[in-house]
Amino acid sequence: MARHKHRMITVVGNIGSGKTTVTPVIAKALKAKHVFADNLFQTIDPFRELYLEDTKRWGLANELWLTLERVILVKKYLRGQKDKLLVVDSGLLMSWAYTNGLLLSGNMTEDEWNLYRRLFDKIAITLFASSVVVALDFPIKTLLKRIKQRGRQFELKYYNPEYLSRVDSGLTKLIEKLKRKKIPVIALGENDVVLNGKGEVEMSAALEQIKKLVKDH
């Protein structure tokens, strides 16, 4: 099997699952560069406030903008890394899961979803042909506890059990899609990724699994 020019690990998971915490741990273990893709567009998204005021009206525009910006970001870093390994926190793949959640909540029509899905397949999915996906899967109860502990007002206001459940559903469908595309996925739960008393991540067995999959991919 021919090796792809670019190699990438993408960490996905619901809000509070630990993507931002786990990403640098994986990158350090694999001597790779890491990118926090989800943190880059919060202050410059031109549709953000409109989306929050009228989600049904602005949901598609908001998600298309975020998806396009994340495609540009991933391509930029892949060009810069050449054949080195890149570890990405969430970003582009999570756009698919979040947008599917809009469909499930009734804030996006089937026609809008089909348009988004087709565009995603045209401009984004091929970027993951040489990628390994690490999917963090934690119970809603754990996610809510973490969201409460970190105390971000935006999250406390908008990320309720119903919202988190919709994101979970989107992630389930996303992982099914990736597997159909022959993109390898490693699912990690609470027993695989543990925070010790010092706030450090313990995931040695999971890291060995990731290393092996990256080497074999």
What attributes does this structure have?
globular; alpha/beta; two-stranded antiparallel sheet; disordered N terminus; Rossmann fold; 217 residues; 56% helix
| Topology order in helix (H) and strand (E) letters | EHEHHEHHEHHHEEEH
Give the domain tally.
Answer: 1
Adjacency order of strands in the biggest sheet: 2-3-1-4-5
Unreliable residue runs: 1-6
Query: What is the fold named in CATH at topology level?
Result: Rossmann fold
Number of separate helices: 9
Q: Summarize model confidence as the mean pLDDT.
A: 87
N-to-C span? 9 Å
Share of β-strand residues = 5-15%
Radius of gyration: 17 Å
Q: What global shape is seen?
A: globular
Q: For the report, how would you describe the main beta sheet?
A: 5 strands, parallel
CATH architecture: 3-Layer(aba) Sandwich
Can you give a write-up of this model?
This protein has 217 residues and is of the alpha/beta class. It has one domain (7-216): P-loop containing nucleotide triphosphate hydrolases (Rossmann fold, 3-Layer(aba) Sandwich). It is built from nine helices and seven strands; from the N terminus they run βαβααβααβαααβββα. It has helices at 19-29, 48-53, 55-81, 92-104, 110-123, 140-150, 153-158, 161-180, 204-216, and strands spanning 7-13, 33-35, 85-89, 131-136, 185-188, 194-195, 201-202. The strands form two sheets. Strands 2-3-1-4-5 form a five-stranded parallel β-sheet, with helices on both faces. The chain has a two-stranded antiparallel sheet with strand order 6-7. Helix 4 (92-104) crosses helix 8.
